[in-house]
Amino acid sequence: MKIKVNGVIVSNDHKEVYDYFGIEATSPNDVLSALDKAKDKDVEVVISSGGGDVWSASQIYTSLREHKGNVTTKIVSLAASAATVIAMGGNKVIMSPTAEFMIHNASVGGVSGDNRDMSHMAKVLETTNRTVANAYVLKTGRSSEEILELMNKETWLTAQDAKKYGFIDEIMFDESFSLSASVTSMSNTIPVEVIQKFKNDKQLSNPTPEAEKADKESDFLMRKMQSQLNLIKLGGTKS
Q1: What is the pLDDT of residue 106?
Q2: Most Cβ neighbours (<10 Å): which of 102, 109, 181, 213?
């Protein structure tokens, strides 16, 4: 059975408003009713969403984790923000090679109040970040510190990157593992910064004839300019 998670992730109370205006959205009740129909059978949750309400996403995530049957979450275009939490609810997470995966810190709009209200809201958001990170930690096996740092940077991932970090288990259509192999092999490559430093150091220790000539010309010009400056200074002293 397929369950679609499309559009904005919204609360049950707000879903009818989105439906009225014809805006694609998914609420917890949408997913829960589909899971009830599936009973204990396996389900495939197809995700194409830029995120939305994190608490609604948490409710969907929990329901998927509790489902008796096998749950496969499939990212077909975009899983961003709260939608990535839902993706983590699958026993198996797969992703299209053309899809994107984005995680970031929780945010809230329309906040008003004094400094105490702002400080309180900051703490609330920090707590939300940590609870969201729990879903990523359980899936990837990485530390909460590493996950929170990725969230701090608003990290966008390709399918290869998402697999490398452990957010997904499989890249769709990649039967030969060619995409996965290209990421795995990167661990054996020398970083560009190291290569450039090596080239610079080598050039300094073994300068080419052209480089030696350029250095000599530069040194001559510097000494000539210094002599002119000294003359000016001497002239100024005499006056």
Answers
A1: 81
A2: 102
For the chain, domain boundaries: 2-188, 192-238
Question: Helical H runs in the chain?
Answer: 12-20, 28-38, 54-66, 82-87, 115-140, 144-152, 159-165, 178-184, 192-205, 209-238
Distance CA 228, CA 177 (A): 67
Q: Which CATH class is domain 2-188?
A: alpha beta
Question: 95-108: buried (b, 16+ CB within 10 Å) or exposed (e) per residue?
Answer: bbeebbbbbbbbee
* Residues recognised as catalytic: 81, 104
Report the first-to-last Cα separation within the chain, whole angstroms.
96
Any idea what DSSP says for residue 167?
A: S
Kindly state the average pLDDT of the residues 215-235. Answer: 59
Q: Which residues pair with 155 in a beta bridge?
A: 103
Q: Number of C-alpha atoms within 13 angstroms, CB side, residue 110?
A: 0
What residue type is 6 in one-letter code?
N
pLDDT band at 183 (very low <50, low <70, confident <90, very high): very low
- The 10s digit of each residue's pLDDT in 104-122 is 998 877 677 888 888 888 8
Q: What is the crossing angle of helices 28-38 and 54-66, to 10°? A: 10
